[in-house]
Design a protein that fits this description.
With 561 residues, the protein is an alpha+beta fold. Among the domains are: 33-69 and 91-199, no CATH class; 216-435 and 535-559, no CATH class. Helices cover 43% and strands 12% of the residues. Strands 3, 4, 5, 6, 7, 8 and 14 form a 7-stranded mixed β-sheet that branches.
Amino acid sequence: MKQNRDPGLQPAPHQGAAAYARAADSRSSVIAALEANERRVDALHGERMRLLALAALTAEQAAEIGAALRESASSEPVSSGSDTAPPTASLSATEARRRELERRSLVAEIATALHFSEATVCGLLDDAETLAASLPETFTALRSGTISLRHARTMAGNARSLPASAHGDFEAAALPEAAALTAAQFTQRVRVLRESTHPESIEVRHRAAREERGVWLDPERDGMAALHCLLPAVDALAIDDALDQIARALREADDGPTVCENTPAGGEDAPISGDEAPVGGDKAPVGGVEGPVGRAAAPAGGNATAIGADAAPADTHGGLLGGDEVPSRGDDAPVHGNGSPRFVGSERRTHAQRRADAFVDLLLGRESRATALARTVAPNLMVTVPVLTLLQHADEPGELHGYGPIPPSTARRLAARAPSFLRILTHPDTGETLSVGRERYRPPADLRLALIAEDETCRFPGCRRRAARCELDHTHDWATGGATSRDNLAHLCPKHHHLKHDTAWTVRPGPARTLTWTSPTGREHTTQPMGRPVFRPPTRPSSHPSTPPRRAGTPTFESPP
């Protein structure tokens, strides 16, 4: 399909075309070598984990042999007048202590041999044992170089938090995703899959996890430090959105509607923005929810997406940890030359710097434009709630956009406070959106919100920038006949939007809104909407006596915390 590229970026046929082709072939060969090398590195990591699992087994065997020898010695007859044998409980405690010492000795020996810290070796041993004993297919994939060590360790860490009976279902659901997603994307997806296979209620687990909340400091270099917060997900995402709105309002106040220098000038296929921008996107107004979405009662079936519901204060039962998509220097602004963002106008702070400055001003009570703006900001959250959960006929978790599963009680409270909601009809098995209504060049609010909930992130391979902070792009350009329909619209961050239009990358749509990207050297990468469930979580029994049959679809809500 047609791509709107700058002719200056393409080599002229009569000016070094052969040299350009040779350079492209050379790049393709280098990338192929990098791919093969990465597979070998992953396979070597797999072999290291195999050896670590074997070392752990030898330590366990040594402890068992020692225990058997001591038991044999203690079973010999004792002479009269000698002390009586110690109680069985005391022997058990002694053996446990000796096993622990055997493990410590092994850890110390591996750490000194490999020049690793003992904490690092402990983590590697735990993961190696989990892979060998509970996740055989994952272990095989790592040893063959199909997945990376980070993917495998993410699998192992999540599997240990599940009962042994759930390991098989968890591996079957998660492993196919490991081969297709980056490690960071996979970590987020596994959190959702873990919830789907965990037999214990998220309400119970969240109450325990919430006791671990806290704030701590890590010193950094050059007079800097990192401040970390572990908070309920709803609170964390509300803070993140408030800082984002303040930073964008400060930029508008300083520069007007300033954009980075390489932002498209407009045209038929320019990013959909202005009064048609997604809620929470670059053009979202401070302190409110944008778009013609009215208040209405919950539908009888499907999912509801709450828009603008109040986020709870500190007593909420939200998720475990929120805001993992803090705007990065790479994703928040296009880069130029040396990788530094450049902005037009008098204000030279980046978006990330404005967020950090606003955070400091608000927390220390300094009078500034940021603190004045904070009094007018209403953070926005989006949460999808199964209708039966909303009506208290079931206890399936809600889905907090940008995070994942949250307790049903939190989802109901957010939905109750939402000024508006959107009903989205979905396929009962795949979760695919079936209908949201109209078609036109500027997509209506309900379609925009449905696509934000479904895409979850930028649709370029590996990108994790939230869809609400991306541009809605016509995959097949509107100017060349592309329709404004759900199958032809996808969210792209500004960086990857430019990559699509201004470089040799191409993209074609596929079934169920998949996108297949082709690199300049011909490599293909297919992405699917991250917000669509891989499989629907099981319906847990509810305390309510009568449970009506489940119907296709589910509502979605947008909420101000």
